[in-house]
Design goal:
Layout (H helix, E strand, L loop, with lengths): L2 H13 L6 H16 L5 H9 L4 H11 L22 H16 L6 H10 L10 H17 L2 E6 L2 E6 L1 H19 L12
Helix pairs in contact: 2-3, 2-4, 6-7
Length: 195
């Protein structure tokens, strides 16, 4: 065989993805239909040999069973996963209260301490002796705290969590606005919708 053709086969083999898209499956199905319309013996082998794919029989079998073809999910860690701990309003409020209580006593709060608090109140179920599970839970708590608006602060080589400046400014504006109403002679009705 001509070396340029071998190089072309090698290029196609290395350049295309391993997962077969829906469009490629439709092409496989079209070739199946064409070879079968020509009454070719061993049509699956002909399609597999022409395309250099092994799953041509699976595509034909799927079409025969369901009259459709579906794309395979690509391999890899690209899908969303369930969170390590629930991200409910109650958990958010409990963590917020925990951080506030510690800030009131000027106690430094780290992600490990928040994680141990969540383990203590049975929100997280982790084995502290298992290094991999501990590290995964630690990263999950760090992501949770970042998503809730907490910011890492550095104090002598370690980190502590506190509200970000944007959240602190929003809180201060809210307190100033509400303070005017609470100290007035006639207090208007105030409806709290969310914190």
């Amino acid at each position: 065989m001509d070396p340029s053709i071998d190089a072309c086969f090698a290029f196609v083999k290395t350049a295309r993805h391993r997962t077969v898209t829906r469009e490629e499956r439709l092409d496989i199905l079209r070739l199946h239909a064409w070879f079968r319309s020509q009454y070719t013996k061993a049509a699956s082998k002909q399609v597999a040999h022409a395309l250099g794919r092994n799953l041509v029989q699976d595509v034909w079998r799927e079409y025969q069973a369901s009259q459709t073809v579906t794309a395979a999910t690509p391999s890899g860690n690209r899908t969303t996963h369930i969170t390590k701990g629930p991200r409910t309003k109650l958990v958010t409020q409990m963590v917020q209260q925990f951080v506030r209580d510690r800030r009131a006593t000027r106690t430094r709060t780290t992600a490990v301490e928040v994680m141990m608090y969540l383990k203590e109140i049975c929100v997280l179920d982790i084995d502290v002796d298992d290094k991999k599970q501990f590290a995964a839970s630690y990263r999950a708590v760090q992501r949770f705290l970042k998503a809730q608006g907490y910011k890492r602060g550095h104090r002598k080589g370690s980190s502590t969590y506190h509200l970000s400046k944007a959240n602190a400014l929003a809180r201060d504006t809210y307190v100033k606005l509400m303070h005017q109403h609470s100290t007035a002679a006639t207090r208007p009705n105030v409806v709290y919708t969310d914190e």
